[in-house]
C-alpha cells in the first residue's frame, strides 16, 4: 500500500522506519518530513496544518493509508478532512483528539468517570485564579489548557511564583491562545512513567513503558522542553502498577470517551505519576510521544501497519502486541540555546556511521538538506537511540553513539537514565 505520514520530527522518522520494515508498504510519503525521513520516503513541502493540500496530495498519490503523527493537525481535524474524502487515516477524529487539545476537558472527564488524577480547578478568569491561589497549598502546577509544544506546564513552589505563572499564561499569553483557559492542580510527588497505547474505539492494547526527561539541563534543571531523552522500559512500571492501570485508568478512559460520544481510535499516551496513593494520570496525549516513540517503536515486534489497520477496523482485540525483551535509550542532540534561541543551518557530520550499525538508530528531528549537505533546522536536531540487554547497556551504547555525530553547536544532557543506573 501507499502510505503517507504527516509530521516532521523524530517521532515521524521512527514511524517511517517501522513502516519501511513492513512487507505491506509499497511507497512511503511524508509531509513535510525532514532530511532523515527523506532517505526512506518521498517528502513534499506541505505544512501539517495545510489540510486542503494534504487531502489533494493524498488523492494525487493514490494514498491507501495516512498516519498523522503530530498533535496540532489531530486536534485541528485533519483525520475528519481525510475521512470525508474516503481516505483511510490513523489517528483520532477532532472530537476525540480534544483529550489532548483541552486539559480542562480531560480533567473533567477523569473527574466524571472516577479516573485517578490530581485534584484541580479550571479557570478562564485570571482574577478568580489568583483568588483561588491564596487558599491553595504550595507547590501547585499551572497548565495552559491548549497545545503548547509540551511546554505549557509551570511548577510553582511559592504563592509569588504561582501569581507570576498566572500572569505568564493568562495575561502575557506566553503560550498564545492555549492560555485562554488554565488548570490549577495539586503537585503530585512520585516517579513519572509514560505508557503509549493503541486504541480501536473499544479495545486498548498498551505498549511497553518509557520515561521522558523534560528539562533542558542535567539534573532536571533549566527550562521545560519537548523532551531531551527517554528510556524504555521503566523498572518502576511493575506488574502491580500495570494491573491497577488496566483496571482503573486505561480501559476506563476508552470507555469514558465512547460514553461521551467521542470514540477514540489511534494512540493514547498516558502520562502517569506513581504516587504513594497509587498511579494517577498526569496528562493524556492523543498521539505517539516524542521522543518516547523513538525507544518504544524500535522494540515492537509487530508489523506496525497491521496494528494500525486493526485500530481503524475495530479488530485490535485480535492483535497480540509484543515487544522485545531488552531496553532502549534515546539521547536528544539539540542546538545550543534550545528551547529559547539557537542557530540553524549548521552542517552535521558522521551520520553515515549509523548505516550498518545494528541496534543503533539516528532519528532526525530538526534537519534539512542544503546543497547535498544535511544541516540543522531546529532546536531538537537528532534522537540518538540504542538498544541493549538492559538499561545500563542501552544507555552506554546510546552515549557512545552520540560521539559519532558532530555539528558546531551540539548540546545534550549527560544524565538520561542515570538515576535508573544509580538505583539498580
TrEMBL record:
The keyword NADP does not apply. Residues 107-313 form the ATP-grasp domain. Its EC number is 6.3.4.13. Pathway: Purine metabolism; IMP biosynthesis via de novo pathway; N(1)-(5-phospho-D-ribosyl)glycinamide from 5-phospho-alpha-D-ribose 1-diphosphate: step 2/2. Pfam families: GARS_A, GARS_C, GARS_N. The keyword Nuclease does not apply. Keywords: ATP-binding, Ligase, Nucleotide-binding, Purine biosynthesis. Its cofactor is Mg(2+); Mn(2+). It catalyses: 5-phospho-beta-D-ribosylamine + glycine + ATP = N(1)-(5-phospho-beta-D-ribosyl)glycinamide + ADP + phosphate + H(+). Gene3D superfamilies: 3.40.50.20, ATP-grasp fold, A domain (3.30.1490.20), ATP-grasp fold, B domain (3.30.470.20), Phosphoribosylglycinamide synthetase, C-terminal domain (3.90.600.10). InterPro entries: ATP-grasp, ATP_grasp_subdomain_1, PreATP-grasp_dom_sf, PRibGlycinamid_synth_ATP-grasp, PRibGlycinamide_synth, PRibGlycinamide_synth_C-dom, PRibGlycinamide_synth_C_sf, PRibGlycinamide_synth_CS. GO terms for molecular function: phosphoribosylamine-glycine ligase activity. Belongs to the GARS family. NCBIfam families: purD. This is Phosphoribosylamine--glycine ligase.
